[in-house]
């Protein structure tokens, strides 16, 4: 399996559980960044809060930059779990997208 391979999360229940946890963290980072940008944008309307707005934009940008790190950490974690095979996946790309 390759690093950042999207098929890693559908191999075993353990893989799915780990991938879900990383996705929760990634979603929380997204929400945190969004909140920083929205509040920072509102702070720019008032001269006395522009410094706070600058800091909120910096924090939001750092949170966005953290997302690829989460993806790489998830992929590395999943590749270390037992139960993976290095052979081809049993799922074809057409059937791996969902459905029943």
Radius of gyration computed on alpha carbons:
19 Å
The SSE order reads: HH
Average residue pLDDT? 80
Strand content: under 5%
If you had to describe this structure to a student in words, what would you say it looks like?
Helix 1 runs antiparallel to helix 2. This protein is mainly alpha-helical and 100 residues long. It is 62% helix and 0% strand. It is elongated, with a radius of gyration of 19 Å. The two termini are 25 Å apart. The protein has two helices and no strands. The chain has a domain at 12-80.
Give the topology:
Layout: H1 13-43, H2 50-80
Give a quick summary of the entry.
The chain is mainly alpha-helical and 100 residues long. Helix content is 62%, strand content 0%.
Summary keywords:
100 residues, mainly alpha, 2 helices, elongated, disordered C terminus
């Amino acid at each position: 399996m390759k690093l950042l391979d999207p098929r890693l999360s559908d191999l075993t229940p353990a893989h799915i559980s780990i991938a879900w946890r990383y996705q929760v963290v990634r979603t929380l980072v997204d929400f945190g960044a969004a909140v920083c940008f929205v509040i920072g944008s509102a702070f720019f309307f008032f001269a006395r809060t522009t410094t706070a707005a600058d800091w909120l934009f910096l924090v939001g940008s750092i949170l966005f930059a953290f997302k690829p790190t989460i993806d790489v950490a998830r992929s590395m974690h999943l590749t270390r779990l037992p139960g993976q095979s290095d052979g081809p996946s049993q799922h074809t790309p057409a059937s791996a997208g969902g459905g029943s």
